[in-house]
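ok new one. same drill as before - structure tokens go in, u give me an amino acid for every spot. 163 of them this time. try not to just spam alanines like last time pls lmao
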């Protein structure tokens, strides 16, 4: 093989190698992007239990897996479809933080609006005010009658937030 031909083949080889590096870098960046997106979506479907009001079903520091009523403008669950026995997370008017409690009954106001009566399983009385569908943030996912829980991992979040 002549020197000219060899140089040409070497240049072609170098060019293919550079294209392979670029392709590899793009694949690596895409895989990082996918990992980040999956992490963000997964984090949006988890909530830390901050009190003992739902014991013995949910303990302080447990993480519950939830479906959201509004996840990036997508509705995973319709709050009007919530039923007695469902565990919901709602923005309470009587407490500054979201509350995780069970729906113990549903009703309708005189003007036909649906409302929920909620109670912590470990609390002696129901919550002080009714919950309306627009207050519902999420519903805890259950398998059978058991909520999907990752035990005690949420203590890290509680510690960081000083709760």
């Amino acid at each position: 093989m002549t020197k000219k031909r060899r140089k040409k083949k070497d240049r072609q080889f170098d060019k293919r190698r550079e294209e392979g590096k670029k392709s590899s870098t793009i694949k690596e960046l895409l895989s990082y992007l996918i990992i980040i997106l999956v992490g963000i979506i997964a984090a949006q479907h988890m909530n830390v239990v901050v009190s003992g009001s739902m014991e013995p079903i949910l303990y302080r520091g447990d993480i519950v897996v939830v479906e959201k009523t509004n996840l990036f403008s997508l509705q995973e669950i319709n709050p009007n479809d919530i039923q007695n026995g469902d565990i919901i997370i709602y923005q309470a008017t009587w407490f500054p933080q979201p509350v995780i409690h069970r729906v113990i009954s549903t009703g309708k106001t005189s003007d036909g609006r649906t409302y929920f009566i909620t109670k912590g399983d470990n609390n002696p009385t129901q919550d002080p005010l009714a919950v309306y569908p627009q207050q519902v943030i999420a519903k805890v996912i259950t398998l059978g009658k058991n909520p999907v829980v990752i035990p005690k991992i949420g203590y890290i979040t509680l510690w960081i937030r000083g709760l």
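The first helix runs from residue 3 to 44. and btw The domain at 46-161 is CATH 2.10.109.10 (Umud Fragment, subunit A).
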